[in-house]
Each structure stands twice: as structure tokens, then as C-alpha cells.
Amino acid sequence: MRRLAFAAFLLLLVIPCGAGTITVELQTNVGDISIALFPDKAPVTVENFLNYVESGFYDGLIFHRVIAGFVIQGGGFDPNYELRDPCAPIINESYNGLSNLRGTIAMARVDEPDSATSQFFINHADNPDLDRDNYPDGYGYCVFGQVVAGMDVVDAIANEPTGEVNFPGLGIMQDVPIGPNSPIIIYAANIVDSNYCADEIGGDLDGDCRVDFTDFALMAANWFDYGSPEEFHKNEATNIDTHDLSGDVFVWEENDDIYSYNLSDGNEFGVCTEGHYQREPAISGQVVVWRDYRNYGGNGTDIYGSDISNPAGPTEFAICTALKGQMTPAIDGDIVVWDDYRSSKHDIYGYNLSTKTEFPICTIGFAQQPAVSGNIVVWRDDRDGNYDIYGADITNPAEPNEFVICDANGDQKRPVISGNIVVWEDHRDANVAIYGYDLSTDTEFFIVSGEVANYDVSGNTIVWQDKRNGQWDIYGYDVSTAAEFVVSTAGGDQIEPVISDGTVAWRDYRGPANDLYWVLLCGGYLAGDLNGDCVVDISDFSTFASQWLDCNIDPPEFCWQ
């Protein structure tokens, strides 16, 4: 099945033009170079390149860097070696699976992975070291097309004598063409073949602007496959304790203070470092809440929060400072919930951040470990002598509508919730297990049993730590397909995973310190994943079937030639 997908991929490379391709011609003083672009593999990059072509940006620029047996690079400087101001940088689509082989065109960039603007290079030789999987920074360079005519021109440019030239404002640059054909000028860049997709069709997996049997073969090759997780690591060691994740923002307790780290841009800052104990942080959007000990003594612990939308100056506020203590806060959107001991027994209270209104949810004295998603709050409840899972609909906070989720034999503990999915630790049998419940269908389901612990849920994806291999690893489960998958089985222990959308983060002991690692579950392009949930399944096939034999080639008479 994998060979079929690979064969279809090779066809894209050997059929340079025709339906669903765009060909650009670079007219130079050495000769013309025709380049077929791959919008299906690098849509953002191709659109960016075409914007420069259509605006005339490249006209009159030069190939300013030439290394025989490596690359020829252009698209940035004029014949006086002055830099032409480009547009904003774009994302790096190097995850598209295309390799930097001889004759391919790729975007040039600086050290920042997402920094490509106008400059491009044509590979004069096979350069697999520039590919994402081989490049030291883990990103590499994005291929977005291939030379289909004029490779002899590329060879001639590559073999032009080079030397050092002083670029105004930049200083001495090496590998600059200085031979008889220099400067090597791009007189014009034009689109010469524009049979292309007028509109994107989700089921068009091979990029030929129509949904047909080739696309079906690609989907079949990836049936029930998952996108390969892409793993990342915080460069500086972090002593993580309790923690949570919302979007790209990870919060944790370290040495009794609360810190935040943005997984996307690496920005770290203190949320609350007041010199007293802050513990059990939780986050939703730009609001962090935690259990706070600043008034500890006869008053117990309180619930505080902070708006971190401005990392330079987080705005802190009290949520609940009632007597005797509040603990284990959870938050979703504007709703904060916690375990409250003001009555000398364990109750569940809530607070609406938008209306600044506190309200009781369950006050019978046996409720702990609350979690919240939307208008549904769930908790561990021992009113019947063992721990069960209860919930309440707080659409009307004045009258919460309470209900039982699981009261099986043995104990059920520490529920978590996302949307309609509730997950908990279950002791009905000899082995510890993780169970789930779908509120939309009133259906309970088994997930896993054995030496398992510390789970979380986001959407239809559940993650947990698992010791089936003799050390703690991270595993996952897709509710929609009832399929289990591996998140991380690196050396050392990986524990206490949290998940938000498609990002999973955890405490990791593969090195000498207790550190932060994370993965993007959908780490790369997965042909057939039309619904964007990182797995190819029946929901994708339904979308695919609805588009069968659709065609959006412009001009339309090319559709079925």
C-alpha cells in the first residue's frame, strides 16, 4: 500500500505540466529556465512565489550566489547588489515530503525556519542534507517545484566563475558570479502554463484539480493511518511540577511559583512569583488560575487567576478567598470551578469570569476533583461510599442539572472532560483502567488497562502515561476510530501528559533533568485526512465521496483530456 502512494508521488515529479500544474519561465541573459510548480505540495510557498512573479518583482534581479555542485540562488538583489524589499515571510512547508534533488527549486531563508520571503535557489546537485529530516534545525528548506526545461542553463550559471563582492550595507559576500556572463540577470519571470485549480477540492489528493481513482488510491494507502508526531524540546532544563496546556501555552508550578512558556515562540515568563506558595495551575486561552497560599493559616488556600494576554505585565486577580480553603481549580472559557471546603466538607463551586459571579454546583459534601468543559462540570463523588463520577449542566448556574456518569463497582477517580467526552481512572476490576463516556450518545467505552496513569483529553483524542514497556511512555487513543497509537517511547520516563487540540506536552526524564517535551500529533501532511483530525477514516471518505469526479481546472475544457 505504501508503494502505491510512493508511485503516485513519483508521477507528480515526472509529469511536469498539464492539468493542475503551473509553469513559470525565468528569462535570463544566459538562457531560459522553465519551472513546474507544485501547489498541491506547497500551497503557501507557490502562492507566495507567484505573487512575486505576477507583480514583476523578480524582473531585473540577479542570481547573486552560485556554488557549482550545490545551488544557484537569486530573487533578492539587483545588478548593483542592492536588496529589493520583499513582502512578509511565510511558513516553512518543508514537511511536504519533497526532497532537495538536482533541478528542484526551494525557498532560501535565514536561521529562523519561517523566514522565507522572495529569495529562492535551484539545486545544482542532489542535496538531501537540506531536507527537513536531515537538516540540523529539524526544518530544512521547502521544495516547491522542479526545472522541466533549461537545466543546461542552470549548469552554465552554476559554472560561472565566482568571487567576493561588496554588497551595499551588507559587506563582503562570497560566491558571487563575476565571470563573462555576470551579472546573471533575470530579465523577466512569467507564467507560461496556467492550467490550474480554480478552487481547492479537498478530495484532490494528487493536485490534478479533479477527484478520481488516483486520489482514491492515495486515500486507501493511508487508511486508518495517523500523521507522524513531530517532537520538540525546551532547550533549557525545567523543573516541572503540576502543569496544564491551552493551545500553544504551557503553564507549570516550579519551586512553588507559576510559570508560562509559549511552545510556538519560546517566550517564557513568570505568571505569579510572589514568594508564597502557588500550586495546581490550570489554563484556558489567556487566563491562568491556581491554588494560592498567600492567606494560608486560619483561612486556608484560595483561588487566584491572571490574565496573561500581555506577558510583560500579567494582570492578577482573586477568584475566591472564602474561609477554610479552596483547591484543585479547573477552567474552560469564562468558567472556573474548584473543590471548596468553606463548609468543612468538600463541595464544588464555580465562578463566571465575564459576570464576576460565584455559584454553588454541588454542596452535598462528597464532591472533589472537578473538571469543566463548556457548560458541563464533572467530578469525583463518594456520596454512596465509593468514588463515582458525577456531572452537572450549569447552563443555568442558579439551578445546576446534576446527573450520574459512572457508578460502577469499585472506585472511579479524577475525571477530565473535553466537549462530549469524559475520561476517568477506573477500579472496577483488578487492573487499573481508563474508561470514557460520550455524553452525546450516553455511551461508556473502555480505553486501556494495566499500569496506566495521568491522562488527559482534547476533542476525540485521549493521552496517558503507560508502563507496558517497563518504563513510562506516552500513548494515545482516538475515540472516533477506537484506535490506539504511540505518542512517545523515548528512553527514560515520560509522564503526566496534557493535550490541547493536536499538541501533547509532558514531563520527560530522558536526560538528567525533569524537562518539557511536546509533539504535534499531526506532524506532517497525511494524504486523505480531509477533516484535519490527523487520521484517515470514514468521515474523510464521506467527504471524498461527496466530491467524486469533481473538477475545477481553469480553463474547464482541460478537465478530462
Write up this protein:
The radius of gyration is 29 Å and the shape is elongated. The model is unreliable at 1-20 (pLDDT under 50). It has a domain at 22-194: Cyclophilin-like (Cyclophilin, Beta Barrel). α1 (2-14) crosses α4. It is mostly beta strands. The strands form ten sheets. It has an eight-stranded antiparallel beta sheet. A four-stranded antiparallel beta sheet has the order 12-39-38-37, with no helix packed on it. It is built from five helices and 40 strands. It is 9% helix and 41% strand. A hairpin with a 6-residue loop joins β26 and β27 (388-393).
For the record, the CATH class of one domain is: Mainly Beta
Q: How many extended strands?
A: 40
Shape: elongated
Straight-line N-to-C gap: 28 Å
Spans of at least 5 consecutive residues with low confidence? 1-20
Averaged pLDDT: 87
CATH superfamily of one domain: Cyclophilin-like
Q: Please, how many helices? A: 5
CATH architecture assignment of one domain = Beta Barrel
State the share of residues found in helices, binned by percent. Answer: under 10%
Strands in their spatial order, largest beta sheet:
3-4-6-5-7-2-1-10
